Amino acid sequence: MPDQTPHDDRPAPSADQGGDRSEQPPLPSPRPAPPGRASSSGAQAGAESEASNGGTATKTASAGDTKTGDTKTGDTKTGDTETGRTETGGDAEPDSGSESGDEAESAPAAPAPAQAARPGADGADGSAALPDPVTDVAVRRREAGADEKAPFGRPGRPLRQAHPFVFGFTGALGVLTAWLLVQAVINVRQVLVLIVVSMFLAVGLNPAVEALQRGRLPRGAAVGLVFLGVVLVFVGVGFAVVPPVTNEVSKFVDHVPTYISQLQSNRQIQEWDRRYQLLEKVQEAVTNPSFGQGAAGGLVGAGRVVVSGAFSTLTVLILTLYFLGSLPTIKSFFYRLAPRSRRARVALLGDEILARIGGYVAGTVMVALIAGTAAYIFLSIVGVPFALPLAITVAFTALIPLVGATIGAVLVSVVAFFDGLGTGIACVVFFVVYQQVENYLIHPRIMKRAVDVPPAVTIIAALIGGTLLGFVGALLAIPTAAAVALILREVILPRQESL
């Protein structure tokens, strides 16, 4: 029987004409295709078809069905695989002469670009290495993305906050900043003390200024009157203390030869001189050259102390005047640092703290004034010399919490003993009795209205403040304790109760 198998007389299409590409050898791929993308061998294996049931030839994909970089032929989409449909400008139905999945051909996948060779190394196919941006300026600008707006290139991604370098650098910078701040505070501690004392005095004098303002006096005039009163107090103290001290020093210098002759004629001194050669040793010490140098150094040191004290006093007065005049502005500035929702409460608490500080200063001055007045009256009655300077000394030492009154009483009693044994004993009895009256009657009634601090807290605060800053610390300790007690009572304790 003759062979009835139909023969295809058409010439075999070439590869350029979209013929059967399944017969062509696959193109070599320089690297494996990434996951999710069809490889060239897989595309070819899926594109091969065989003639079936009647010798129907498969149709080759038209030129419009192939896209560069996103190739789609038949049922295969190279690089972004889609199966089950053929795109020819839209979703087209399969041709009647072809069957789904029978003999669909697929164009070979475009070869993946070879991985860029590292600078200084040969490529995989033996090609020359890429230019190094270190040596080639053009490559450097191109890789950095330099242009007119960014002549040095685009900045890279910032380092993460958890990067070890960022963490270590931030920690080291914080430690260095803290150390510099501590050193700065240590270097300017004297200036800071003067500022704190000036602010303390300004707050203490503010109630007097506000009292004058309530009398319809402008604040500037009220500040001027109060400050004038403070200056007059200092001037009065100077006139009361300096002339008597100067006179006594002059009298002592004039009577030095008399005192020496009296010592030489004293029997007890003569006995000690025979045993220990006291006068000879004193004469050797006086005639020694180092004695003159030490005396000169002592005089220079005393002069420095006097000049430093005068400068500090002048600085405190000037700062007090400035703070007293601008106290409302300073308060408003610090109140504005608080959040708007809490500013009213912060202002009320701040006004109360300032009022307590002012009350403490006024109360302390009142207690000192009473002590000085009582001492002056008693010393004048007893006939102790220099009654006014001694009374002023008692008043100033009474400003020191806890131990100030005792210091003043000891100094006055020692001077009184030089006047006579009976006078000294009378001074000791007087100050002992007055201390009891002050501790149990005067001081509690005045300070109760001013600061309202328990006695134990007062003692502890004064001890801590005196240890840290001396006289200034002891003076500031009690109003500071009053402020802390107010904050604890009004802020901390209610918050603890609400938890």
Automatic annotation (TrEMBL):
Q: Does the keyword Thylakoid apply?
A: no
Does Plastid show up as a keyword for this record? no
Write the signal peptide boundaries: none
Instruction: Please note every region of biased composition (Low complexity).
Output: 36-52, 106-129
Taxonomically, which superkingdom? Bacteria
* Biased composition annotated in UniProt, kind: Polar residues: 53-63
> Could you tell me where the Basic and acidic residues compositional bias lies?
1-11, 67-85
Region described as Disordered: 1-131
**Composition bias, kind Acidic residues: at what positions?**
90-105
- Locations listed in the record: Cell membrane
Membrane topology, record value: Multi-pass membrane protein
**Regions that span the bilayer:** 164-185, 191-209, 221-242, 305-325, 346-370, 376-400, 407-435, 455-488
- Keyword field: Cell membrane, Membrane, Transmembrane, Transmembrane helix, Transport
Renumbered to this chain, the Pro residues biased-composition regions fall at: 25-35
Q: Which family does it belong to?
A: Belongs to the autoinducer-2 exporter (AI-2E) (TC 2.A.86) family.
In its UniProt entry, what is this protein called? Answer: AI-2E family transporter
Q: Which organism is it from?
A: Actinomadura keratinilytica
UniProt lineage:
Bacteria, Bacillati, Actinomycetota, Actinomycetes, Streptosporangiales
